[in-house]
Amino acid sequence: MIPVTSFAGKTVAVFGLGGSGLASCHALRAGGAEVIAADDGADRMTEAAKAGFITADLRTVSWANFAALVLAPGVPLTHPVPHWSVLKAREAGVEVIGDIELFCRERRRHAPDAPFVAITGTNGKSTTTALIAHLMRVAGYDTQMGGNIGTAILSLEPPRMGRVHVIEMSSYQIDLTPSLDPSVGILINVSEDHIDRHGTIENYAAVKERLVAGVQSKGTAIVGVDDGFSRAIADRLDRAGKRVVRISVKNPLADGLYVEHETIVRSAGGARSEVARLGGIGSLRGQHNAQNAACAAAAALAIGVREDVLQQGLRSFPGLAHRMEQVGRRGNVLFVNDSKGTNADATAHALSSFADIFWIAGGKPKAGGITSLAGFFPRIRKAYLIGEAAVEFAGTLGDKVPHDMSGTLEVAVAQAAADAEASGLKDAVVLLSPACASFDQFRNFEIRGTHFRDLVQALPGVERVV
């Protein structure tokens, strides 16, 4: 745990008592603050009370003595409308922050030069985060990984020299971290997502930009420049005097890291050198993973990892659960769990990685649907549509892609497995990459992916992929 001493002797309201919220309560109390815990759910309020925290309905108490409102990232800050707790805080002149802001304040107080790598992007941030943490461990660092990837940041060990914190950040978390100042900040890419929470893609991109704009004066901002928003952000950082490392998997760069022929190449001042090779690394298959690997390599180099250690780390990376995870094989059929593909851009990466796909898609739809995936339709032998988006997706696929209205994941897995096996294709792939959120049928993408894996591994004759 990281005790939050910056609010010692003060009273702090915490709203949203899930994993990060409850961890914030414990960290604030350990640092000497008085905590008033609140949530819209009675069960979470009961859990907090059992842990010894004062709980209250923040609509009925005085805000005069609150030093801050610590808000869980899932609670709306601005769009579609601010949560009522945010409005109460603003009326009282109380700052609204998140748990990563508490971490940043503790780091500045106690270990301002401790390595802190923050990662964001519309797609690829979890894989990149896990890969950086893996590279740091291979290089011998005491490595703490958390944030949006799963472990609440305040549940980790405190910052100190020789210990690196590798933290994935969603746009929601960045929004709640006004003094974000990593030593290495990474923006992988920007494409349309979470517009319901930010209003416009321009607002969304501006929030993402804050992560790399906030890097410390001697820090490094790493920016993937294969989309227009990110290119513009890199240029602005340059003009602001930041040290910027540009990343591309589409074009050679005069200055930066790019991927060419499955090799990460570094270019500077007209000189080119090979950094690492990606060929044959199954966990980093596809152009999207090449981008993730190049960003991770740039971070490792910025911290001081040697190139031979970097190559060793890339080759030993096991991959990320629910992201292009090979969960089983039966004969010539490979089953791939890409449950983390929750929007069309993420699913595009998965579809681009295989040639003969039996595609399971659907769930809670997002803006834009799957119209942008039309270029990959020739790779799809058949689609199996589930959840709320099934009718919309069927309309988009039309007569271009054969499809079944499977409805549930259980039905889709059985149908896809049977059709893939009957196809006789040499490298048939049953791919779960929903291009949708999970919330219509599953509480989160992890539960959806685990259920897919269990369904696959229960099929007769399926062998697990090692």
What is the strand and helix layout of this fold?
Layout: E1 11-15, H1 19-30, E2 34-38, H2 42-50, E3 54-55, E4 66-71, H3 84-92, E5 95-97, H4 99-110, E6 116-120, H5 125-138, E7 142-147, E8 163-168, H6 171-175, E9 184-187, H7 195-198, H8 201-213, E10 220-224, H9 228-239, E11 244-248, E12 256-260, E13 263-268, E14 271-277, H10 287-303, H11 307-315, E15 325-330, E16 333-337, H12 344-351, E17 356-362, E18 380-386, H13 390-397, E19 403-407, H14 409-423, E20 428-432, H15 445-457
Parallel strand pairs: 1-2, 1-4, 2-3, 4-5, 6-8, 6-9, 7-8, 9-10, 10-11, 11-12, 16-20, 17-18, 17-20, 18-19
Antiparallel strand pairs: 12-13, 13-14, 15-16
Helix pairs in contact: 5-10, 5-11, 8-9, 14-15
Descriptive key words:
23% strand; alpha/beta; 34% helix; six-stranded mixed β-sheet; 15 helices
Question: What does this molecule look like?
Answer:
This protein is an alpha/beta fold. It is 34% helix and 23% strand. It has 15 helices and 20 strands. The chain has helices spanning 19-30, 42-50, 84-92, 99-110, 125-138, 171-175, 195-198, 201-213, 228-239, 287-303, 307-315, 344-351, 390-397, 409-423, 445-457; strands at residues 11-15, 34-38, 54-55, 66-71, 95-97, 116-120, 142-147, 163-168, 184-187, 220-224, 244-248, 256-260, 263-268, 271-277, 325-330, 333-337, 356-362, 380-386, 403-407, 428-432. It has a 9-stranded mixed beta sheet with strand order 7-8-6-9-10-11-12-13-14, with helices on both faces. A 6-stranded mixed beta sheet has the order 15-16-20-17-18-19, sandwiched between helices. α5 (125-138) crosses α10, α5 packs across α11 (307-315) and α14 packs across α15. The mean pLDDT is 95.
